[in-house]
Design brief:
The chain has 868 residues and is α/β, with parallel strands linked by helices. It has 36 helices and 18 strands. The chain has a six-stranded mixed beta sheet with strand order 9-8-10-14-17-18, sandwiched between helices. It has a five-stranded mixed beta sheet with strand order 3-2-1-4-7. A three-stranded antiparallel beta sheet has the order 11-12-13. Strand 1 and strand 2 form a beta hairpin. The radius of gyration is 31 Å and the shape is globular.
Length: 868
């Protein structure tokens, strides 16, 4: 079987006749080779209607003249039917008696190879194996180049039986032969098949590489059939990586393409997979709708393997909806179909559902038996194992078997760590922890129920910033269940701050308030309530509302929900470090509305900054402070009036950090006011902002690139690691689907039109020591939040490169207000203030000004992230 394909719909008779009539008229005078080549080109374009009509026309035309040519067309039509998923119809052609003069020819090799493929797709494995062996013997006798096609077919046959190592051997063999023969289409099918084998061996990064190569080749050659297959296979790999948004886009594009070329078998796959994405997003009605569309097509095609998959999916949806009788019926139906096929791998998923139904119905012994069977079966993939072990842990927890539950939770997390450790590339590791979110959530709730708050916090922190810390070279624990001991209070003491650590769970959420003396936990509402409130309030901020004037209820509610429980532990005008989770990654806490003693923004009570994890903060304390800019006598500080008796008269005055150096040796790299394409409007105030920033540094300490010189190449050539401060004034793009493709928009180098973006993935490759990187651009903080990693984009990339602090924007920024904000920021830095204090001072200067800039839309997008 080629890559995850089995069956497809038959051609409409009318369409077939119309195509046939056209072909008869157009190709009457062409040679048989040209006719055959044209039909195959139609197949390669994914035009099955035309390809099959041309093949049928060729067979009819030559059946009474030349049996060799007639059989060439007949075999092509059989191949088309197999690609469409109509293996029974293909066999009806392939089992026709071949003339004696062709019995030891290449058409005979082709017949046996295709017949073996059709039998394999119908699960008649003995018949398939016999045909493949006969084809190979004849091929060897004739020294035929069809050895490449036989190897591919045998690889698909072995893969279908879950013999992945053997399958990969045949696909690699076929790929090598295809390249020697310059057979591009055969090369692409082997690339796709190797991608699927890598998926099923849980080598997802390798799978993406194979599928991407196939997609690029198919796009160049115009092969629509293989292009949509590559898109869908990429979607599956990204699903397994936990990157659901990207997977959904790929599936939807693949399904649209498959529908356009009437590739019904593929449509069944992609509809089922779209349903899976919605299931994982907990959009159960949408998931069920797509599953039922997929099932209807699979039943028409009588494709038992696909029916098993889809019915199993419906069983999982039913159990989540509390429909246990329906879930049991689906599971039993799927299990029986898989058992009839003698496919143990397909049996395991409905078996897991049966275990979940038994647990829900109060039959713990049967549930335990099933969960153990699934977790220990050699055919179970890693995701199935960690799911079964987690279900077993929850079962033991319900039965108050504490030690047994703890053991299974640890085993589940160890299994997902095993899967993550196989990933080599950073961009694939970033989304992977989404797969583990519910496992960590369940285990943390279990630990808290056992009053093991410290262990729960350690585990929660271990799940954060994994990829960031690995990229920075911070040693990691070998097991997720045994994180390295870390004193939260000591981290707070070293940071001279109160740390608010958030965990947003589906059923329960928590906040740990950490001070140098103690750690206190408070319970919060579940994710759905938090997410809805954050979304409404963020929308109010982005619509230029004066939320203070309107006394926005969501802003007040968020403060009372997220901050008020810990307010007694936060001294007035002290530092607060936030370690956020879920939707809170997109929320600027400074804008939250404090109701007492009079309504005001929380920024007026505290200096607020963000961090990725406690371990990130612990590494940050072990570095020497960088020098700060000094351009002569310190500028006069801006006096800001107090709002409310509980706050000091100057909320920006904090105890000076220990051993802050004020010296002329601070160096600035300043890049901006680029010459951009017409896709990016000029920034009228970019030059002013560059001037406002640059005036706070001595000329000798500045390296400035503007206009045509402000290129990505200039950044890398400047040796950015030597600078204490780096500042960009430019447009930026934030990629949601591929966050490391987020970029700062600069000038093209040497007139090359595609050389104007400084990508996040490139930023990570140039180590930094900068005290502060400021991305004065829209959405510099990114728009894609990954479980455990938070927002990933330009800010994350600079932290990953080693910057100590990064300022990035959570939303679109105003060119008019930003120049003024940055002037105030660098004035504070020049006075020796740390970045978080200088940024707060700059924001307060806008907040307390007259006019439109006092609205949070203008001062609140910029957020400070602390790294190491």
């Amino acid at each position: 079987m080629p890559w995850r394909r089995q069956q497809m719909l038959k051609l409409p008779v009318l369409a077939l006749l119309l195509a046939l009539l056209c072909t008869l008229g157009c190709n009457r005078l062409q040679s048989p080779q040209k006719l055959l080549d044209h039909a195959r080109q139609s197949l390669n374009r994914g035009d099955f209607v035309a390809a099959r009509a041309e093949a049928d026309n060729g067979y009819r035309r030559f059946s009474s003249r030349d049996q060799r040519w007639a059989w060439s067309f007949l075999l092509l039509e059989a191949e088309i039917l197999i690609d469409q998923g109509s293996s029974k119809d293909a066999l009806a052609l392939l089992n026709l008696p071949m003339p004696a003069e062709l019995a030891t020819s290449e058409p005979a090799i082709k017949q046996k190879t295709l017949r073996g493929t059709a039998y394999a797709l119908l699960d008649r494995f003995a018949d398939a194996d016999r045909n493949f062996r006969e084809a190979q013997e004849l091929c060897n006798a004739l020294s035929s180049p069809l050895a490449a096609e036989i190897a591919r077919a045998r690889g698909a046959f072995e893969r279908r039986q879950h013999h992945f190592d053997i399958a990969a051997h045949f696909f690699r063999q076929s790929l090598q032969l295809a390249r020697q023969q310059n057979d591009t289409r055969l090369e692409m099918t082997n690339l796709l098949n190797l991608g699927v084998v890598a998926e099923q061996e849980e080598h997802y990064d390798e799978s993406i590489d194979w599928s991407n190569e196939a997609y690029r080749t198919a796009r160049i050659s115009g092969d629509q059939y293989l292009k949509e297959a590559a898109l869908g296979n990429l979607g599956w790999a990204y699903t397994k990586l936990g990157d659901l948004d990207r997977a959904l886009d790929l599936y939807q594009e693949a399904e649209t393409a498959a529908r356009g070329i009437e590739a019904v078998h593929d449509r069944i796959l992609w509809l089922d997979d779209i349903g899976e994405i919605f299931y994982q997003k907990n959009r159960l009605p949408d998931a069920e709708n797509y599953y039922r569309q997929s099932l209807a097509l699979a039943q028409q095609s009588e494709n038992s393997a696909q029916i098993v998959d889809i019915v199993t999916s419906l069983a999982f949806v039913s159990i989540q909806q509390g429909k246990f009788v329906e879930a049991q019926n689906y599971a039993e139906q799927a299990f029986q179909l898989a058992h009839d096929r003698k496919d143990r791998w397909l049996e395991l998923y409905p078996l897991l559902v049966e275990g979940q139904v038994s647990a829900a119905r109060g039959n713990p012994k049967e549930a335990e038996r099933v969960f153990r069977e699934v977790a220990s079966d050699k055919q179970s993939d890693l995701s199935l194992r960690w799911g079964a072990r987690n279900d077993l842990a929850r079962l033991y927890e319900q039965q108050h078997q504490v030690e047994a539950a703890d053991k299974q939770y640890r085993a589940a997390l160890a299994t997902i760590e095993q899967a993550r450790s196989s990933l080599q590339r950073e961009e694939f590791k970033l989304p992977f922890m989404a797969n583990a979110a519910h496992l960590y959530d369940d285990y943390i709730h279990f630990l808290l129920a056992q009053r093991k708050d410290s262990q729960a916090l350690q585990l929660a922190d271990y799940s954060r910033a994994r990829t960031l810390l690995e990229g920075l070279g911070v040693p990691q624990a070998k097991s997720a269940t045994l994180p390295q001991a870390l004193s939260a209070e000591q981290v707070a003491r070293q940071a001279d701050a109160t740390i608010l650590f958030y965990w947003v769970g589906q059923e329960r959420s928590y906040i740990w308030a950490i001070t140098p003396q103690s750690t206190t936990r408070y319970e919060l509402p579940k994710a759905a309530e938090i997410d809805a409130t954050v979304q409404r309030y963020r929308q109010a901020l982005l619509s230029w509302q004066n939320v203070l004037l309107t006394q926005n209820r969501d802003g007040i509610h968020l403060y009372e929900m997220l901050v008020k429980p810990a307010r007694k532990l936060i001294a007035p005008n002290s530092r607060v470090i936030l370690i956020t989770d879920g939707s809170l990654d997109n929320l600027n806490f400074e804008t939250l509305l404090v109701p007492n003693p009079e309504l005001h923004y929380w920024i007026e009570d505290a200096t607020i900054l963000s961090a990725s994890s406690l371990r990130v903060l612990s590494t940050a304390r072990n570095r020497a402070p960088e020098p700060r800019p000094d351009n002569g006598p310190a500028a006069e500080g801006r006096n800001i009036a107090a709002h409310g008796a509980s706050r000091a008269s100057d909320p920006t005055q904090e105890p000076a950090p220990k051993e802050r150096k004020k010296t002329d040796s601070a160096k600035l790299l300043l890049i901006g006011d680029a010459v951009t394409s017409r896709d990016y409007a000029p920034l009228p105030n970019a030059a002013l902002e560059l001037q406002n920033v640059g005036k706070h540094f001595p000329e000798a300490a500045e390296k400035i690139y503007t206009r045509e010189q402000a290129t990505p190449a200039a950044y890398t050539a400047a040796d950015p690691g030597q600078f204490s401060f780096i500042h960009f004034v430019a447009h930026a793009t934030a990629s949601k689907l591929t966050p490391l493709d987020s970029a700062i928009v600069l000038s093209p180098a040497n007139g090359e039109p595609d050389s104007f973006k400084l990508y996040a993935r490139d930023i990570t490759q140039h180590p930094l020591r900068a005290e502060l990187v400021t991305i004065s651009s829209c959405n510099g903080a990114g728009t894609q939040a990954y479980s455990g990693e938070g927002l990933v984009g330009l800010s994350w990339a600079f932290l990953r490169a080693g910057a100590h602090h990064v300022i990035g924007a959570l939303w679109v920024v105003s060119d008019a207000s930003t120049a003024q904000l940055m002037d105030q920021l660098y004035a504070g830095l020049q006075q020796g203030k740390p970045p978080e204090t200088a940024l707060r001072q700059a924001k307060l200067s806008l907040l307390h000004s007259e006019g439109v800039f006092r609205k949070p839309f203008y001062w609140a997008p910029f957020q400070l992230y602390t790294g190491r």
